[in-house]
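PROTEIN DESIGN WORKSHEET
SECTION A - STRUCTURE
LENGTH: 438
TOKENS:
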């Protein structure tokens, strides 16, 4: 996508067979908030188009990297290239891996019977390239058994047949013993996580619609939270309510929910407990879930029953920092320009930017929770990244209150369009929201 393309124009250029759909021209009509069903009377998410876009971006990245192939263990990169997913207990076991080659037909080694399932239900994968694989479940099966050795031998054979075994092989993340085995078998390994993150940084119309749908689900959950946010309820009860509601709405995975209230607000603990919420508490929540793989990171802050002047003042400052950032987001702007709009760590009582990391913060959203760009004073001032049309990211601000315990936390998700930042997090946040006021 070029600087002057609308999303609809880019869609037409990249996929000429697809009709130019005015409803998908987000810069002019806004982003639709569909349900999660397909219908015959509206153009909604086109998953064939989504898969084509993602594999095209990944292969372009491969061809530009100078590598013969990409070997992928990162779950998000596997989903981006193979269009497959297994969540839950297998999400952190390094048990799935994929080999992306220049012919656009990835090889996938999956957990046991999942490989057979893909042959039945994922026709975009070549059947002979969907195979069962096992490397040891992060060391639970000792490397001496030989599973990693056999896997590398198989991969090297594929690379040899493709004529690229002598070229560098790009890997995103890897267990040390697997890396050592690749080296023992004569493969030259290089890091290509940066290449895959670059590929994933510009979102297609379908990715943007899925991100918007995920955010719209959280809009509704915040209404549910407001309805029950009153003295006597515990933080963990809010987490349970939100998780249940998200799954009812069609969430694929509720990754985390922060629920922080009262004296726990300052400093920010980034978790939840069984604390009982009391009158006059300030409380903030972060809802992180995914819909068809696409994630939210969506904070809101409330006062319970009534608000105090220190709470109101802290919220106003957090909102001021947020609005300044949103107003300056545009194609071609450097992330350093955004980071400089936020207070320094020392202004908030922290010793350095590492101690305050994540409080005044921006991060890309997509299949992963933290994609390009990452915006903060820790990294962006000296190493800025150019913001581009088609990026989607969250902006987060935090301000401690002068009462020493309360704090305001705001987060907005934005899509970068030709007209600047389009906010897709809609629950009211311009002023401090008092839940169940007296």
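SECTION B - SEQUENCE
RESIDUE ASSIGNMENT:
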């Amino acid at each position: 996508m070029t600087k002057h393309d609308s999303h609809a124009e880019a869609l037409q250029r990249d996929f000429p067979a697809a009709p130019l759909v005015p409803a998908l021209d987000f810069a002019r009509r806004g982003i639709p908030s569909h349900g999660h069903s397909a219908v015959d009377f509206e153009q909604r998410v086109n998953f064939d188009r989504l898969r084509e876009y993602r594999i095209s971006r990944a292969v372009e990245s491969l061809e530009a990297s100078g590598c013969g192939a990409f070997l992928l263990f990162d779950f998000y990169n596997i989903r981006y290239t193979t269009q497959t997913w297994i969540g839950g207990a297998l999400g952190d076991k390094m048990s799935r891996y994929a080999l992306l080659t220049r012919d656009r037909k990835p090889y996938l080694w999956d957990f046991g019977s999942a490989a057979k399932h893909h042959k039945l239900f994922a026709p975009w994968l070549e059947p002979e390239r969907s195979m069962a694989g096992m490397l040891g479940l992060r060391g639970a099966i000792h490397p001496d058994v030989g599973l990693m050795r056999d896997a590398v031998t198989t991969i090297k054979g594929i690379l040899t047949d493709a004529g690229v075994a002598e070229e560098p092989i790009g890997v995103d993340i890897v267990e040390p013993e697997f890396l050592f085995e690749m080296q023992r078998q004569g493969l030259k390994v290089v890091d290509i996580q940066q290449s895959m993150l670059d590929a994933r940084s510009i979102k297609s119309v379908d990715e943007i619609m899925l991100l918007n749908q995920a955010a719209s689900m959280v809009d509704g959950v915040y209404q549910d939270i407001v309805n029950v946010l009153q003295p006597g309820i515990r933080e963990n009860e809010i987490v349970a309510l939100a998780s249940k509601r998200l799954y009812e709405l069609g969430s694929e995975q509720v990754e985390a929910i922060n629920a922080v209230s009262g004296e726990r607000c300052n400093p920010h603990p980034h978790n939840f407990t069984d604390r009982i919420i009391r009158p006059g508490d300030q409380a903030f929540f972060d809802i992180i879930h995914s819909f068809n793989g696409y994630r939210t990171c969506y904070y809101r802050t409330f006062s319970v029953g009534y608000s105090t002047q220190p709470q109101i003042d802290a919220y106003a400052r957090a909102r001021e920092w947020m609005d300044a950032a949103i107003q300056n987001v545009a194609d071609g702007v450097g992330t350093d320009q955004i980071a400089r709009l936020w207070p320094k760590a020392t202004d908030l009582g922290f010793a350095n930017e590492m101690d305050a990391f994540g409080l005044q913060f921006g991060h890309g959203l997509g299949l992963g929770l933290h994609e390009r760009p990452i915006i903060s004073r820790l990294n962006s001032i000296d190493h800025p990244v150019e913001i581009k049309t088609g990026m989607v990211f969250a902006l987060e601000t935090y301000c401690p209150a002068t009462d020493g315990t309360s704090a305001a936390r705001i987060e907005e998700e934005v899509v970068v369009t030709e007209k600047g930042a389009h906010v897709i997090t809609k629950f009211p946040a311009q002023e401090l929201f008092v839940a169940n006021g007296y």
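SECTION C - NOTES
The chain has two domains: 49-199, 202-435.
Residues 210 and 294 are 6 Å apart (CA to CA).
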